[in-house]
Amino acid sequence: MEILSQVWSFLGLLTVLQNILPTQLLSLLHSLWQSLHDSLTPYSHFDVPEFTSSLLSNPLYRHVSIHLTSLLHHHPHHLHPHLSLSLPPNSSSLSLSLSPNHSFPDLFLGHSLLWTHHVDTLPDSLEERRSFSLRLPKRLPLPLLPAYLSHVSASAAHFERNSRDRLLFTNNTASAWASVPFRHPSTFDTLALEPSLKGEILSDLARFVEGSEMYRRIGRPWKRGYLLYGPPGSGKSSLIAAIANHLKYDVYDLELTKVLDNSELRSLLLQTTNRVTLSGLLNFTDGLWSCCGEERIVVFTTNYKDGIDPALLRPGRMDVHVRLGTCGTHALRVMARNYLGEEAIEAEHVRRALEVAEGCVSAGGALTPAEVGEVLMRNGGDAGEAMKALIKALQASILGGEGGSLSSSSDGSWDGLPREREGEGKGREKRRSWERRVKFLVRLRSLAKCDSGR
Ligand SMILES: Nc1ncnc2c1ncn2[C@@H]1O[C@H](COP(=O)(O)OP(=O)(O)OP(=O)(O)O)[C@@H](O)[C@H]1O
């Protein structure tokens, strides 16, 4: 009680002093107190305001905010009692952020740092001034600060890319993209692909994604062209979706039949960051326009590779050719597991039926993954019945009934480099017959791009 009454008297004295002392003297006393405090404290403080002094938004504020959100998500054991929950517009998952005027620790190269989120309401206004302040030990080597801030920005970019919902853009209207959330469930885990093909595609994608420096060094735009070819239902769209999900890219699905001319095509492509002629497309895929926007995978799909002009097939435009066909034995097993369930295919009678089905494939039974999926779905309730129906369908395809149109491709194959040139002669005559469907996978990349409104 005695201490409380002394504190009360002290506060009263302060109020009296505040009223009788001139403002200049008060502010001098305040700055003296601040200097004394700064020299005694073992910490330095850095403010990161939401807006710069020229009222431009400060990208670093946003990076810090996202970095802290990522720390909160990844270290639930550090959960702070004062967190704000929100549902961001482009995401279906809840976002955690640090509540105003609370702090959260971070660790960098063994050094403990502390972020505090400040929110002050401006006097006589409803406006809020927000900032983060970073508390660092004074003994911390100064060069560590830029390194730490780069780490914060990289962590924010990584978190944002991985947590936001991705979009599927289509050119519904003449020269603009329309988008819907991209929620295709296909992944490399669910995709029934022969393991060697899957492995080759995944390593190629990994090399591409990590190749920024290499592409810059050799002076090539950071892009890669894929050609997926195979009969309807062989999994071209599913593979594109799996690639997009794997790399967290947005998908731009360009229907060329809706594009009137080259300038419209260019306008659409520039927004990503036929009377459309072949030269317009060539120009984009390997020409000047291909430099617009970074880190881009262009996927061409067709049912007939022979119908594609050789000028489009060459490396630099379609770097990797992937043939997708009917189900091989491995793909068949993966589909049976996905559709019927791990447990069901372990049952003795289903296991035997699966072996018979694999035998049918080896003997020339050719069904596309779409056809296999349909048979398994129709009889999904009963795994034994489903396998019987599958064997029947495979046998029918051997007898020439329902097989896929690429009977030779019982498994997917990777053309790799150098390119096949066999279609070169015929290709020119069939120039107009290539399928007018191109898919663009474009990573909505850096925070800087969002900030500059591009
Ligand atoms: N490799 C696969 N693994 C698992 N399911 C697949 C696979 N390929 C195709 N499917 C199934 O078949 C359906 C059709 O496949 P998809 O649309 O990818 O084929 P497509 O080759 O793009 O066909 P189209 O040429 O007609 O556009 C998909 O919805 C998917 O369920």
TrEMBL record:
Signal peptide: none annotated. It comes from the Eukaryota. InterPro entries: AAA+_ATPase (IPR003593), AAA_N_dom (IPR025753), ATPase_AAA_core (IPR003959), ATPase_AAA_CS (IPR003960), Mitochondrial_chaperone_BCS1 (IPR050747), P-loop_NTPase (IPR027417). SMART domains: AAA. One of its GO terms (molecular function) is ATP binding. Keywords: ATP-binding, Magnesium, Nucleotide-binding. Residues 402-432 are annotated as: Disordered. It catalyses: ATP + H2O = ADP + phosphate + H(+). Residues 405-416 have a biased composition (Low complexity). GO terms for biological process: response to stress. Residues 222-328 form the AAA+ ATPase domain. SUPFAM superfamilies: P-loop containing nucleoside triphosphate hydrolases (SSF52540). Belongs to the AAA ATPase family. BCS1 subfamily. This is AAA+ ATPase domain-containing protein. The lineage of its organism: Eukaryota, Viridiplantae, Streptophyta, Embryophyta, Tracheophyta.
